[in-house]
Amino acid sequence: MNIKHMLCGFLLLWGSVGVALAEQHPDFEIRGMHLDMRTQVMTPEAIRGVVRELADAGFNTLLMEWEATFPFERHATLRNQYAYSPQEVSDLIAYSRSLGVEVIPLQNCFGHCEYILRHPRYAALREDKKETSQVCPLALDVTVPLFRELFAEIAAAHPSPYIHIGGDETRLLGHCKRCAKKVAEEGISPLFVDYVTTMCRLVEELGKTPIIWSDMILQHPEAVDKLPKNLIVLDWNYGWEPNRFGDIEVLHKAGITVWGAPALRSSPDNIYLTDWNKHFNNLTSFVPFARANGYRGMINTSWSTSGQYGYLYDQSWEVLSMQPIREVYPLAAFRILREAFAAAVKQPSPLDTEAFIRAYAHTRFGLDEAGAQTLVDYFRMPQKPIVVGVKAHPMVQEAIDVGERLAEEMARLRPKRHGEEIEAWRLMLDIRLHYLRFKQVECRYESADFVWAERGAMAQELKGLLREGKALQHRFVVAHAGYLKHPEAAYGAWSYLQKMQTIYDTLI
């Protein structure tokens, strides 16, 4: 490693110099992070730890997606078993403000409203009686009273001048008969814009500035000029080419303020897969693009789930339970990406990922050059989804071989401090290898060559894997005690273990 890389990494990692860089290059007025409480509810102390890191890095914003963990009063039906108390919410917001970090609430009112629409009390809002993800934009007789009250409760708890109202991935636009009629007469864009504008007015009544996601208005921009001029659009880009959803210049021409949003956790991440390469490259490419194109803010999103669910229904499509399709590893293991985001936002040039990882290894853990190289190899390890069918997938054994080699190298690391962070990465890799070994067995089970006489040997393999799975779950719970409100409940996200158990039960 050359002296230039070492010096560059050191300057980026430490707070005092980092703040100085931010002052020299104040491109982004809003600099922050998003937390998603939909499936992984962090303890108040864990959230305060994130806030302290944000403040130390010179950031000023926390975008909180409370969902069912917010202590709603008039709509108490929406609370789940992990909901925070009003005092906990108040204390967190006050603590954040004391450190110069403003908490912006995110209250979905269009798409991703599963936690609302799953309840019979709110079923009349659904765009489709069998689908709980989207509110009907023409059901204003019920949506306006509901969201006026929800926004009011949210606004009362958050002094921030902003409320994010969602608006992304409304894939059912024009689905119901009334909406289909409006689309036939006016097009999709007015259907989307008219409803969003109505919700914006509710926010403005409270003296707040509304924020929405970028995807839908960029896909259907024909009515963009009808949107409120004070609206802020948050352009999320998780590693793809700019203008994937549509020409961002449409928003600039309409006089709309644009913020940017890369991702710390997003697709294809899940419990047994984290595409570190994708997230580092996302920071390297998107942050400079946003800076060059006049974006006024930058918020790093951190999704605990894809926001898609599987359902258990009763008659009349009554929702009995929801299972997230994909849930990712908890935020505790992602400090390095938070620091990389801070570095990328502060400096005028694109982030040098390898230099950053090496500097992080030296300054955070006190590792030597060989240890730093191990971490570079770990974060550059191919982490693509592997779908196993009825034939052996050539990538499975290759991924196992690479993972096992890195696991041995990670085990030899001797950090001088913050060893728990490296242990988290080792656990993530061990879960990944466990998953891949199961996929090898499953591939044989699903193949045309499988005969019942082989069931005994296969059951023994699965029995050993199930035993290893329980040990991994124990490590997971220990690692996240005090960080998640419900580390044991995260077992439900390890869906491959459920599948493994089902095959094992069949074989025995």
In total, the number of domains comes to 2
β-strand number: 13
Low-confidence runs of at least 5 consecutive residues: 1-25
Mean pLDDT: 92
Roughly what percent helix?
Answer: 40-55%
Would you tell me the structural class of the helices and strands? alpha/beta
How is the main sheet built? 9 strands, parallel
CATH-derived topology of the largest domain? TIM Barrel
Could you tell me the radius of gyration in angstroms?
24 Å
> Strand portion, in percent?
5-15%
Task: Please give the alpha-carbon distance between the first and last residues.
Answer: 55 Å
Q: Tell me the overall shape.
A: globular
The CATH homologous superfamily of the largest domain is termed Glycosidases
Task: Tell me the CATH architecture of the largest domain.
Answer: Alpha-Beta Barrel
The CATH class of the largest domain is identified as Alpha Beta
The number of helical elements comes to 18
Layout: helices, strands, pairs:
Layout (H helix, E strand, L loop, with lengths): L2 H11 L1 H10 L5 E7 L7 H13 L4 E5 L20 H13 L3 E4 L8 H4 L8 E3 L2 E5 L4 H18 L4 E3 L12 H10 L1 H18 L3 E5 L1 H5 L12 E5 L12 H5 L3 E5 L1 E3 L10 H17 L4 E6 L6 E5 L5 E6 L10 H12 L6 H13 L3 H11 L14 H18 L7 H28 L8 H26 L14 H13 L1
Parallel strand pairs: 1-2, 1-11, 2-3, 6-7, 7-8, 8-9, 9-11, 10-11
Antiparallel strand pairs: 4-5, 12-13
